[in-house]
Amino acid sequence: MPFSQLGLSPYVLPALQQALQQAGYAAPTPIQQQAVPLIVRGRDLVALAPTGSGKTAAYVLPALQRFSMGQARKPRPLLQLVLVPTRELALQVSDVFNTLGRQMARRPHLVCAVGGVSINPQLMALRGGADIVVATPGRLLDLVAHNALSLGQVQLLVLDEADRLLELGFGDELRQILAELPVRRQTLLFSATFPPDIAALAAAGLRDPQRVEIRDQAQPEIAQRAIRVDAGRRGELLLSLLDDPGWTQVLVFVGSRRDSDRLAAQLRAADISAQALHGDQSQGRRVRMLQDFKDGQLRVLVATDVAARGIDIARLPVVVNYELPRSPADYLHRIGRTGRAGEKGLAVSFVDADALAHWRLIGKRNGMQVALEERDGFAPKDAPVQARVVAADNGGIKGRRPSKKDRLRAAANARPDPAPNP
Ligand code: ADP
Ligand code: MG
């Protein structure tokens, strides 16, 4: 099916087709085939499709069409709002808007509103209004508080990585934003994973939503491996795996900002070009590290979950879970940074004694069958957690394993940094 069959208006189609061709998009992906016709008809939508399947263009094309059908007004009323969970993703989505909109006779004024950088340029950019804003929730609320922006006329709301935005942590900010939006609007939710909890979806204010789901047959080829290793030897294991010349570039996920800095330093000490990426860094630095990695100037990027969602790195061959992610959904998002747009990829997870039970849970929830391997010279010696945990953080109940909450609490007590966010 060609792009011309998606129900896009003949007025805007030639300009979009030209841009699509320049971007190297020959034909729509399955999620684009299914979602675009529904969106241009004005339906609310819950769209579920694997990582790397082209969800961005599935909402950007109809959004550009909607813009093209409106008339120019001064000042520009904000009519379209795209919310994403991370700054990196906001920049990336803005790029897709600019790329696919570049042949349009009248182009939208798009403002990317993200935290971690000075608010002033964004205030300046919003003088005279904006047609489309791509934002992270916190900065959007700041701009609303500065009266730089009114959400009262928004016609189209997109939540990309919607399940993440609906999670606790964003829930409050999202509620405040939704309260500012008109009730009559089109709302689109996109993600590779959704909570089974329908109440959370209803909270997003969907009206009679259509549901579109692209199943795994379209899932890119991501080979998965899991290696048992003692926690203290994970750095060595990573170094030994990096001997493989096929591992030209590796995105390594760790659990904390500190681990991110420490492991990157350890790799550099072994003459491997590596940098850390995490939420404690300035936004300028984050953008630079990610760009250097995308440009191939860095072999290893050691990141927290700020890089887990949505980030598109072409031809990234390997993702390593140095530390397992918190949730089974996060696992899918992390490994989905490789194997994008139909390419092949490899995801390797390190499983230490403490993580065994959690690994099984991730496997079960995601319906995975990944055998645990041992690697020569790295046979695990640590005892599994059940044998070692005593009264420490479990409320003194003998034999009870510390829950995730217990562990988070313990971690919060142990480190001065109060923010659990990556
Ligand atoms: P998702 O949001 O589903 O994880 P993205 O929208 O980031 O995926 O797209 C993944 C990659 O596929 C990007 O590099 C994008 O440029 C590319 N892509 C998207 N749509 C097409 C298409 N129709 N043809 C070819 N490549 C595409
Ligand atoms: Mg995406």
Walk me through the structure.
Keywords: ATP-binding, Helicase, Hydrolase, Nucleotide-binding. Residues 36-212 form the Helicase ATP-binding domain. With 422 residues, this protein is α/β, with parallel strands linked by helices. It folds into two domains: 3-213, P-loop containing nucleotide triphosphate hydrolases (Rossmann fold), CATH 3.40.50.300; 222-388, P-loop containing nucleotide triphosphate hydrolases (Rossmann fold, 3-Layer(aba) Sandwich). Helices cover 36% and strands 16% of the residues. The strands form two sheets. Strands 3-4-2-5-6-1-7 form a seven-stranded parallel beta sheet, with helices on both faces. The protein has a seven-stranded parallel beta sheet with strand order 10-11-9-12-13-8-14. The longest helix is centred in the N-terminal third of the chain and has 15 residues, at 55-69. Residues 390-400 and 414-421 have low confidence and may be disordered. The structure holds adenosine-5'-diphosphate and magnesium ion. Adenosine-5'-diphosphate binds at residues 25, 28-29, 32, 49, 51-57, 310, 312, 314, 340-341.
Layout of helices and strands:
Elements: H1 13-22, H2 30-40, E1 45-48, H3 55-69, E2 80-83, H4 87-101, E3 110-113, H5 120-125, E4 132-135, H6 137-145, E5 156-160, H7 162-166, H8 171-180, E6 186-191, H9 198-202, E7 210-213, E8 221-228, H10 234-241, E9 250-253, H11 257-269, E10 274-277, H12 283-294, E11 300-303, E12 318-321, H13 328-335, E13 344-351, H14 356-365, E14 372-374, H15 385-388, H16 404-414
Parallel strand pairs: 1-6, 1-7, 2-4, 2-5, 3-4, 5-6, 8-13, 8-14, 9-11, 9-12, 10-11, 12-13
